[in-house]
């Protein structure tokens, strides 16, 4: 037994015979008076208990529990489904005269065998064994009306639930339908209708594999296979568990139950209860009769653990209108709490029961365990039922089918073996029907291939809950059976065309991880379906695409690499069609297939970057891009402006195609990126023909002259070629003077005496200061200089860390970037992350603050609200490190970095620089330390000019560093 109560157990007082949070046996209680036929013999227990007993017709007790398939009670009547498929309703008797209820048989359609029933105020739903659903009147004053719900078509129904005036039905294909009154949004389809007899599809739950449905008075709960709980409808008392009391007309996720491993939900009139896999019970909603079990009559707006049941391993829960029952199989006891006004908890006391107490049954811990052992049910042979103001307990010799609910169709090993071994034609028709049912339903696909050992209960934006290796095994098996494989692919094609654009949960996005494994074949059909999947991915709303990207980033590397290879291959195929088209017809048509597959590949590339490059970059390159560059219609990156202009006029379509392709830089290797960037710059030159911008400077006043010129000029953009003129020197700038200028000014701006940048001694790197001293526009001007250098293909070797180039490309810096900039700070933070012992973390005396220097003083900055009072623990240390890194690279330098970027975008009007990765952009700014000297000799005449230039001399040379960098 746990020694501590969880923090959310806040029961103020407890029963005097109980320790905090633990159930203890009470003294034996006398059994309630029962009809003679129901009295227990010395050798066996009674098979059925009903509370309040006086209302029950004696004929009910004559039935053996083994003859009963299901009992359902609601309001002032209840229904019994017998094993033979017939239905009996016990109507309300004359309570004032003390008359018990009278049984009435329901007239069913011919050959109908009933699976289960559920009732509302005036109607009963009857579900046949074939999955057909019909609606029957339960009124005793009118002739029974029978309505087969034909609006559900041929959809087999597996679960039903009724509120006071609304109904729910779950199909085997994973679709949820509702109908009836909608005064509080209890249908989950919005508030535009107030009543409907026609079942409405709850579209917001499409794609979510539903495990169970439940209906309260005017609210609904739905449980997914991975323990997520959704609620909607009336919420006056907080019965939706969302933290507020406003009615909700569409399904909402109950975030407070995240990671609780919920396996069962139950709804009362205006309260709700949920059961976790660990046997914990949480309740919420109306508590006026004590039905929440928290030793109070207070309402609860969010799920709260029933403290008295903590550690008791509850196995069943059931909610009546104002009371709740729970069954603890390990103790062989049934506990109840809530209203006792009508005897629904089995005793004569009418006051509310605020904490769980055992029902007065002749069932103690010893014989309860004996009953379980004799029947081999481990408690599953006992069924508790609560409805209206009534309670029922059934003792069964065999497993009750409604302890384990019928569910939606999913793939499992047993089904797969049947599909593969199928040989007879009649069997094959059944298999095809089964495959069609599963693979035409997003919910059924998402409910298949779940991770074992309950790992799928942790499904979130980081954990998919899918065992991708199981999908691969499934693919390998069906691939060997062409008939099965083709049927799966046939249904998959229909499914891909109908995938929704939004989802309520990460569970609904599992299909995007499953489908690529099933489409890994290299035939035209698989390629076509991958294209359909790309369309569906790009249709997703932004928030859902972000979740999918997170799921992708957490895939195991081999599976993520497979996904990349699939779309890289498809991109190659589509681009090869372009080159064939160009060779054959001398023209191009840029179709949507190229756009879609390139875009998906680029998204995967961005995921790869954020995940720390799980897959090497060359897995994204598309070699066919080189063929496009080599076409006779393609742009030569080294044309002069006149030649470039003539080419643009004659090949405008091709130019636009290349421009579109540059939106997906992952398909380019470095050399092709440089070509594409030069083309982008030439495009700007062509669109804005002007004279060169000549910068006159004095060597001895280089920085001041430059900054003053830029301040005075203040153009909107700097789109002209740059020429540098040193005062008193005869040299003409053919490229060498400009390179010398940028080398010198970069060095002088970084000098400590300039007091512009913050310098880190151990790394010899610089960063922006949190406070700008001197001229307020200094970083704006430095940004302009950097942009002008890049636009004119020159280096500006500022010793910035990689974090700068990440920020320029909207990629967030990480702890690794802080280690590069400040090795001491980075290593200290890594030690915080790696520390195994809590006491050592406590000794560090860390909190959510950082020390910052302002002038001559040191100030403390909080990294989050009230950060000085939040100590760092194992639970929040990752948040602390992330906040520290974010403060260093973002929060503390917002103003200077913004100024730098504003200036850079003015100095470099060609947006093509975004085609580079952060590491590539850094190389373009600062240059590589290795050079391809053979290429250098080829592109320079004579090569000694460039060698001399690199040694610090100024000669006009006809090439730039772009042309001889070594690219890996």
TrEMBL record:
Keyword Mitochondrion: no
Coiled coil regions, renumbered to chain: none
Biased composition (Basic residues): 12-21
Basic and acidic residues: compositionally biased ranges: 1-11
Biased composition (Pro residues): 25-38
GO molecular function list: ubiquitin protein ligase activity
PROSITE patterns attached to this UniProt entry: HECT, RCC1_2, RCC1_3
Keywords, alphabetical: Repeat, Transferase, Ubl conjugation pathway
Any one cellular-component term (Gene Ontology): cytoplasm
PANTHER family: HECT DOMAIN-CONTAINING PROTEIN, UBIQUITIN-PROTEIN LIGASE E3A-RELATED
Protein name: E3 ISG15--protein ligase HERC5-like isoform X1
The organism's taxonomic lineage, starting at the top: Eukaryota, Metazoa, Chordata, Craniata, Vertebrata
Organism: Alligator sinensis
Residue spans of the RCC repeats: 174-226, 227-278, 279-330, 332-397
GO biological process, one term: protein ubiquitination
